[in-house]
Amino acid sequence: MRSLFSMASAVAFCVGVGGGLAGAIADEPRPERYLYDPLTGQSQPFDPAVALGGDRPGEATWPEQWPSLDLPDAATGFTLELFVRNDALPAPPGHATAAPVLRYTTDQATDDAVALQVYASPRPHAYHWWAGAVTQDQQTRRMTRNQYNGWTHVRDPQWRHLAIVYNHDTRTVTTWLDYTKLETIELERPLRFGQGALRLADVEGEQTFHGHVTPPRLTTESLEPWHFQRATPHDLNDVSFKPTDGPLPQASGYVDLRLRYGAVGDGVHDDTAAIQRAFNELQNRVPTAYETLYFPPGTYLISKPLTWTRFLVVQGAGVDKTVLRLKNDAEGFGDAGAPDALLYTGWDQWRNRTGKGNAGNVIGNYLFDLTIDTGTGNPGAVALSFHANNHGAIENVTIRSGDGTGHRGLDFSTNWPGPTLMKNLRIDGFDTGIYARAGEYSLVFENIELANQQQIAISNNGNVLSIRNLRSDNAVPVIETGGWGMVILLDSQLHAPEELDQPAITNASDGALFVRNVEASGYPVVIRDGDREVRDAHVEHYLAGEPQSLFDAPARSLNLPIESTPTIPLNDADIEWVDVRDFADHVDQGDWAPAIQAAIDSGAEALLFPANFQARVRQPVDMRGSVRYVLGMKSTIGPHKGYEGPVMRIAGRDDSTVIFERLDIDRQGDSGGVEHVTGQRAVFRHGGPELYQGREGAGDVLAENVSTLWRLATGQRLWGRQLNPESHDISEIINDGGDMWILGLKTEYASTHVENRNAGRLEVLGGFLYPVTQVPPDMPLVLNGDAAMSMIFSTSAYTHDHRIYFRDTQNDVTRELVNREIDSKGPRRHVHLYTSSPLPSSSP
């Protein structure tokens, strides 16, 4: 290959008269200080850019500061690229138009040409996108990716990299924006080459490009995006941006932080700007669309706080492979009295130094498979201030301090965090390991390790924390709870290396506490609850508040058997993923059901619904055959308008398990979602059906971090972590004769949140049931009928509340527990433990 920067044939060069070149070159901006060429592995100072734009174009000579381009008279491929910055959009057009930034006519005799341009869609939308185009035989075909409020939009004056690549062998032309493919089209015939011409800011229709451009590069080979030039603040040498295999399938549509945004990840160069730009462009897509930002293996050096709002999945390569590390002795992190967060999720514009602010609509933030390291000399550092509502997760993450200092490891100090799930989390160091406040909306933890905290492992001031399998190795107390908060602690080990004169767990007078199956060593006092103390090394069952029952049931939780949730082994290279898009030829008039069914019936073991995939069906899809894994990348399938059946049926073999991750399956009213019709076990994680309907003979269900309305059939079993069903008027959970074990349940709106009947068994261990809208006076919060239950939860009733908390019927006897009988302080109410069990039959 060769880059064509030699003085040769004349090149037509067109600039807007209004932009003007005279005296402008030296003063105009450039993307960054350096231009890095991955083909040579070397950097050089970046040449200045030129300004384009005006009322009409005019001829000008090629700037002396730019090298001339020798246009080939034949080519088996080429790559044309440049950096461009839009400064002003033209008025919205009345019809679709294009304003070329750079046009390369390969043969003026036939007008074969390619172009990089701004494309504007017609009214009423009139959005502007970056695009490519190819012209043959007087016909122009455009290449773009139209996304509402997406990264392809031409908006703020920000430098972008544009490239267009021609491959003679495949007869394809591909447009790239910021090292990411927009679209590829296949030509009916190869491009012709002859007398060529290169023009800037040519005019089509009614638009002219207004902005800045850098010298274009023409390379006589069809390059891959990791070979394109890069604008960078760093003087790089021998850095590769070629993607490496990660835990997610390459076809899944994740965004590679290094490839698209140029993060280096070597622990030496500062990647703060690259990461923040990625967050800015990928967050908060409205209408809701999720992007997954992948951090490849490496150490990403950070010097300032990083923030994103919502609707974003941050994916690492593994806790031992991807590290986000704060610079040692970083400015702004040196004062423990004025702490700041290295990584912060939520509405940053509402943030203030007291940690308040935020809203209850920070939905769907995820952090997977990485390490956050606050370095050394940063006593004011908060590693992660996390906020997610409705659904969100931190999973397979290590948070550590390089020297043990730091304000907090994991912080939930903003208003109304949760519900969200933290799983497989280790926190090492910091004054406080985990801090939570605010009354809403509950937090769920499982498989948590805390070590080397300086003051307290977990501090809860008002929220509802459901914790299972906590391992604490600390010379300080493990848990303090107060502020009318609630803590549920199960199946945990609390170890102090030497005997302490402080209790492991302290419950303030305004707190609620439930402890079951907890081992402690090194703490003579395991629980201090007001004037009560528990000194037993093994705490089998402890309840701080008063239990309640309408039928004199045992004042103990049901203690149902617990099963762990299986996951997709994403790092297994032997899994062969089948992309449902490969069966798009089966789509029938917008109905994706035949295509998805064809993918399932192809013999696939693993099914992929890639990022930003959305499909509608008019008939149910049967999940059957060999499929074991379904990965959705936060994609969605749902019913077509008017279709009232299930979207998907779990219909596989009784001896098999199918695992769904990150796939949402929508409903319409009382239909849609998933129907479970065979004994196959189903697992839903970080996404799932909006409505689940189990039928007689259906298999077990395990669910984590889902917003599902549940209908469980007789004989079924369900294990749920962080369940957030929300509905108006219709019941959110109906257990009709099954077993349901739930660690952290959050509900919302006016409805009967739980119905338990027909000898069903239901155990709820923590959560937050929220009657936020007007509640009919006769609508119970929980309905129980001839069934067993134990429930621990909290509510907030600022303006609305259920009058009836429990309506319980056993053997034709019905009784009610009303809100004034529930422990309360202001708007908060605690159900410390409600139990019920069927009465003996009175019949002979």
How would you describe this protein?
The chain is mainly β and 844 residues long. It is 3% helix and 44% strand. The strands form nine sheets. Strands 18, 19, 20, 21, 23, 24, 26, 28, 30, 32, 34, 36, 38 and 41 form a 14-stranded mixed sheet that branches. Strands 42, 43, 44, 46, 48, 52, 54, 56, 58, 60, 62, 65 and 66 form a 13-stranded mixed sheet that branches. A ten-stranded mixed sheet has the order 22-25-27-29-31-33-35-37-39-40.
Summed up:
The protein has 844 residues and is mostly beta strands. Strand 11 (159-167) and strand 12 form a beta hairpin.
Secondary-structure blueprint:
Layout: E1 14-16, E2 34-37, E3 42-45, E4 50-52, E5 57-59, E6 77-86, E7 97-107, E8 112-120, E9 128-136, E10 139-143, E11 159-167, E12 172-177, E13 180-186, E14 197-200, E15 211-213, E16 217-219, E17 230-232, E18 255-256, H1 257-261, E19 266-270, H2 272-282, E20 291-295, E21 298-302, E22 306-308, E23 312-316, E24 322-326, E25 340-345, E26 365-373, E27 381-385, E28 393-400, E29 408-412, E30 420-428, E31 432-437, E32 443-451, E33 456-461, E34 464-473, E35 479-482, E36 486-495, E37 505-507, E38 512-521, E39 527-529, E40 532-534, E41 538-543, E42 577-579, H3 593-600, E43 606-608, E44 614-617, E45 621-623, E46 629-639, E47 648-650, E48 657-665, E49 667-668, E50 671-672, E51 674-676, E52 681-685, E53 691-694, E54 701-706, E55 709-712, E56 717-723, E57 733-736, E58 739-748, E59 754-757, E60 761-770, E61 780-785, E62 788-796, E63 804-810, E64 813-818, E65 823-825, E66 828-836
Parallel strand pairs: 18-20, 19-21, 20-23, 21-24, 22-25, 23-26, 24-26, 25-27, 26-28, 27-29, 28-30, 29-31, 30-32, 31-33, 32-34, 33-35, 34-36, 35-37, 36-38, 37-39, 42-43, 43-46, 44-46, 45-47, 46-48, 47-51, 48-52, 51-53, 52-54, 53-55, 54-56, 55-57, 56-58, 57-59, 58-60, 59-61, 60-62, 61-63
Antiparallel strand pairs: 1-5, 2-3, 2-17, 4-15, 6-11, 6-15, 6-16, 7-8, 7-14, 8-9, 9-10, 11-12, 12-13, 38-41, 39-40, 49-50, 62-66, 63-64, 65-66
